[in-house]
Amino acid sequence: MSRIGVFVCQCGENIARTVDVEAVAEALRDHPGVAFATGYKYMCSDPGQALVREAIAEHGLTGVVIAACSPHMHEKTFRRAVDKAGLNKFMCEMANIREHCSWIHEDRADATAKAIDITRTIVEKVKHNQPLESIRIPVTKRALVIGGGIAGIQAALDIADGGHQVILVEKDASIGGHMSQLSETFPTLDCSQCILTPRMVEAYQHPNITLHTWSEVEKVKGYIGNFEVTIRKKARSVNEDLCNGCGDCQAACPVRKIPSEFEAGLGKRTAISVPFPQAVPNIPVLDRQNCTLFKGRRKGLAKEVCGKCKEACLKGAIDYDAEDAFIEEEVGAIVVATGFKLYDIGREQPEGLKGYGEYGYGEVPDVIDGLQFERLASASGPTAGAILRPSDSTEPKTVVFVHCVGSRDPEKGIAYCSKICCMYNAKHAMLYKHKVHDGRAVAFYMDIRAAGKGYDEFSRRAIEEDGAEYIRGRVSRIFRDGDKVKVWGYDTLNGEQVVIDADMVVLATAIRPQDGIRDLAQKLSISTDEHGFINEAHPKLRPVETNTAGVFVAGACQAPRDIPESVAMASASAAKVMSLFSADELEREPAVALVNESTCIGCMRCADVCAYGAIEQRDICAIDGHVCGHVAYVNPGVCQGCGTCQAVCLSKSVELQTFTDEQIYSEINALCAWE
Amino acid sequence: MTSESRRTLAGEIFAATGVNAATCYQCGKCSAGCPMASESALRPHAVMRLVMQDRREQALTDESIWLCLTCETCSARCPNDCDPARVIDAVRELSIEAGSADMPRTISAFHKAFLEQIRSNGRLHEFGMVMDYKLRSGELMKDVTSAPGMLTRGKLSFRAERIEALDEIRRIFEKCGVTP
Amino acid sequence: MRGDAVSDGALADIAYYPGCSLHGTSREFDESLRAVAAELGIGITEISDWSCCGASSGHTTDHLLGVALPARNLALAEEQGYDTVLAPCAACYNRLSAARLAIATEDGLAERIPDVIGRRFGNTVQVRNAVELLRDAAASVEEKVAATLTPNPLEGVKLAAYYGCLLVRPAEVCGYDDPEQPTSMDEVISACGADAVDWNMKVECCGGAFSVSRTSSVVRLGRAIIDDARAHGAEAIVVACPLCHSNLDLRQKAMALRGEDPLPILFVTQVVGLAVGLTPESLGLERHFVDTEPLIARLIEQAAARDAEERRVKQEAAAKAAERAARQKAGAGAAPKDGDAQ
Asked: How far is residue B32's CA from residue A42's CA, in Å, rounded to a whole number?
């Protein structure tokens, strides 16, 4: 015999303004099976929960219905309260009379009647609830970090220092990311590589970190605490165990004119190379696209046309026949830290974006972007730190810095602000003035966004101490005029057109997510927004989690971000991961499918429709051991409780616990009966 | 836009063009590329600001809106699709309706002469238009030196080409409420 | 009836909307267009009883007028059974296209227009301009140029393609080319064998409608355009708009600096016409204010000289080959001598 307690919440004004809570409690008091019904102002509060506990004890309740907000909000809260009172927590359900009633209706009489119906329906359901136990699953206490920039490195170090094994996967030949390309960082003007390389080395040498560079995540299966990851280690053509980083192969390579990705196209590299001298690991990669030997192989030539690097290598580490390798790893948590790339102003654009025809589509010489300027300014860059124009290597005496190229430009497809450009533009103006004392630095801006610690002071320094000219207005056109680059801008504060004959122009292009981010997101079952940035679970309160349990996010792959924030996010992800690893087992909700083996006919239609691969075939054996049939079996650790199997089962043998056919039909009947 | 805001200049412009003037964040890109900026007191972004701030009289009476070439450069480059060219068109229309248009004499003469030609003949008779323009503008000697050249090159015809369905043209002008 | 459609993908008869200027001060645009269309087998028929599109004076003073005047002509084209209108004048092209877009997108306009113009209007006719048409027929142009017997006076000649505003902006109205770095006219110029120079004022306004009412602005803007074309080595500027032509041609004297050689301004149809061997007279080239005769004469002379030189080289080579063959025949019996192996 059911003895159900009904608690109707006023939720302050949220429910009480539209629904007569007392009337609902009154109506439910007479409902068959209800032993106790009452209303209260804030059920989720401490006294509210105490009310529930006391009622369970006093009235010997066998089930509890809280008529209040959505289960998404407080189901956990109330189930915990019920559990404390000694009643199985799955005997507690919520009737949503807020999101489904008071928030969407205005007429009090109608809303109250509907609230009564909703509550009665759930009461009928609870009559069929079963006491269930949480499922416990083991947790693999190893983490995967995807992306070896500053965020990925920080997350890996934190988790590793916390005593857990980390696998760090980086798609480039070295870790370090964009931070390794920077000359100096704001607001301290610290040398970027000086503060980064110690971390890189620490990550490489840490006993708990396994580093896979020139590698990508190929496939991900499983669920929180139990992921199975396949990593593709792309063929480096260099044996990592034999190579000692001497660089002889690089010196011997005859192909020397490939535009260097690390130098942002301003410098050249060889076909076999490390991206930069401080690369970690200091093991080169052979670029098979541009290698003479491999070009020959693709043409089908019988004889190898080059082999200089192999000849030069004293360790015999070069292997032209190396192939991509696949590594299988089991991990319990994943951190995505794939970083960003810069928007390109060229003609070819992905769907939804436009290029800047008015700035020359990237074809005007001496119009460069921020990363290219960093390489010019960098002491280890293509000009050894001298600011020189790419076209003729002369020192530019007038440099124009243009803010918001792509950013804050809905017409081009990017409405958001890229956050870091105001700061790095100030930095660039300062670096330029420090190196070219008689140079003129002009910055065209819209607004100055310098909200971090010491940021505003830093950006003011550029103007007040280093003499950068800041003009408020956007630039209409940039084009080549003889030896100069003409810039047509506007000074909205003075109200005049401004035309500058610049020697060089630096465009602060927008921050965008990396190529391939959507594919990766799909592999991880996480979502991206319309720009491709990874979606966080909740924009305010859950910034480092994604909507897939066990997958966390850190750094600029989630939104434009500077270094301190990326590091903070990385440490936050690490904390989440370690909290996950702090218990040996994870508790899972028992809302999973269960097969009644006596009625199952073994058609396996359920396995066909299961999107998670949670259903297997299980043999039924006779007493003498021979297999006389088979049935379906649902792995409770993998099942996500979607209910699709229940919908297709011909013999009605598989049911989702907490949403059995009996429970659902009782709800429907209740709704129809109380018309 | 609420019905109340429709009474503002921004509201009128929105009703006429669909442009929400508040989307203009005054970046100045339009004015940076405007070919007439050096000759106008009010540049395109300034017109947008007057609209936003409901400065009706200032917007409708400034000469600058008549110096606009309708070259569409501003609208082509505006990052927020504010379509300043269209907004300025609409401000001109409001200005005429309000009777407060401060068109420079020559420009006013030109538009009137042009439209009158169309209304009378259906097609522009350039010679006739220029004559009318001279009378209205007072620029009696305008292009007098080019006239012989035009004649010898066969570009000047003294007789207007008149279409058959003139009544249709008159009807159009009437329905639009335009008298040049 | 003008030219029947040629088999290789040419268009069926299109409606021709010359606009007021092409019947007046830009007669040569009309003449050269008709001549070139005939050459390329593109059939065009003038819309019967067409009226002015309103140009800038229309939409500048009254939005509805600015839509209704072009709409009347589109309605006429529909009635007369066409699905495409060719409007060579950039302003007409822009107004007709803008009217189409406005009627398709603005609330209530589609319902109002038929009443205003007193005709049915389905908004079904496509609008094309001369540059677009020629660009789409570039292959035919190239073929014709190659097949022309007289040497091409434009071979290798540096020309600056000047688009101006209304051929490319707004992008939603025009749409057939990039609004900042268009290439359609350059492609036509290349198809004619000439060299379309890379220059900076391709899409900067010439001063348009202020030609008469505020000539000083036109002089200022035109000056910058001519300077830039010259700085990039152009021998002439190519246009596809009567007003651009007038501003740069008729008004060039006002903007010229002392001692400066004038820069001829050619219509794109005249360029194609010259390349396919039509006479300058048939293209109206004598109607320009900046005399085109010296340039054309020089180019024809250069082309003839180049052609003569090519013939001479060919003849010499043929003669040498014949000589060699004769010698070999003669020395077939004798032993090979030193120096015979060539």
From this structure: 59
Quick: pLDDT tens for A366-375: 999 999 999 9
B77 touches chain A (CB under 8 A): yes
pLDDT in tens, A512-547: 999 999 999 999 989 999 999 999 998 999 999 998
Nearest Cβ partner of B92 from C61, C214, C220? C61
- Interchain CB contact of C179 with A (< 8 Å): yes
d(CA A27, CA A37): 9
Contact A412 B79 (CB under 8 A): yes
CB contact under 8 A, A473 and B28: yes
> Which of C:278-337 have CB within 8 Å of B?
286-289
> In which residue ranges of chain B is CATH 1.10.1060.10 found?
3-98
- Ordered domains of chain A (ranges, CATH): 4-134 (3.40.50), 142-234+324-339+525-581 (3.50.50.60), 248-312 (no CATH), 342-512 (3.50.50.60), 593-656 (3.30.70.20)
Least confident of A447-461, A467-481, A660-674, B54-68: A660-674
Torsion, Cα of A284, A288, A289, A293 (10° steps): 120
Nearest CA in chain C to B137: C213
Mutant choice from C57, C220, C245, C290 vs B, greatest count of B C-beta within 10 A: C57
> Quick check: helix, strand or coil at residue A21?
helix
Q: Whole-angstrom Cα distance, residue C187 to residue C195? A: 10
Instruction: Look at residues B95, B138, B137 and name the one whose alpha carbon lies nearest to residue B112.
Output: B137
Indicate yes or no: CB of C200 within 8 angstroms of CB of A357.
Answer: no
Pairing between β-strand A165-169 and β-strand A209-212 as defined by DSSP bridges: parallel
CB contact under 8 A, B146 and C250: yes
Question: Which tokens belong to A466?
Answer: 């280093």
Tokens of A345: 């102003």
Chain A residues whose beta carbon lies within 8 Å of the beta carbon of residue B73:
476
Q: Specify which residues A142 forms β-bridges with.
A: A165
Q: Is C200 on the interface with A (CB under 8 A)?
A: yes
Residues of A whose CB is below 8 A from C231: 482
Between strands A184-185 and A190-191, the pairing is: antiparallel
* Contact flag C25-B155 (C-beta cutoff 8 Å): yes
Pairwise CA distance, residues A168 & A229, whole Å = 12
C-beta neighbour count of A163 within 10 angstroms: 10
- Give chain B positions within 8 Å (CB) of A446: 25, 27
Mean pLDDT over residues A170-175, rounded? 97
Instruction: Assign domain B3-98 one CATH number from 3.10.50.40, 3.40.30.10, 1.10.1060.10, 3.40.640.10.
Output: 1.10.1060.10
Structural domains in chain C? Answer: 14-128 (1.20.1050.140), 131-301 (3.40.50.11810)
- The C-alpha atoms of residue B114 and residue B116 are separated, in whole angstroms, by 5
Q: Which residues in chain A touch residue B24, judged by CB atoms under 8 angstroms apart? A: none
CA dihedral A527→A531→A536→A537, nearest 10 degrees, is -50
Q: Does C233 touch chain A (CB under 8 A)?
A: no
Question: How far does B84 lie from chain A, in Å, by closest CA?
Answer: 14
- ipTM for the predicted complex comes to 0.90
DSSP assignment of A595-644 equals E-TTT-----HHHHH-TT--EEEEEEE-TTS-EEEEEEEE-TTT-----H
Neighboring chain C residues of A348 at a CB cutoff of 8 Å: none
Contacts of A335 (CB under 8 A, 6+ apart): A143, A144, A145, A146, A152, A155, A159, A551, A552, A553, A554, A570, A573, A574, A577
Interface of C with B in 231-260 (CB under 8 A): 250
pLDDT-based confidence at B5, cuts 50/70/90? Answer: low
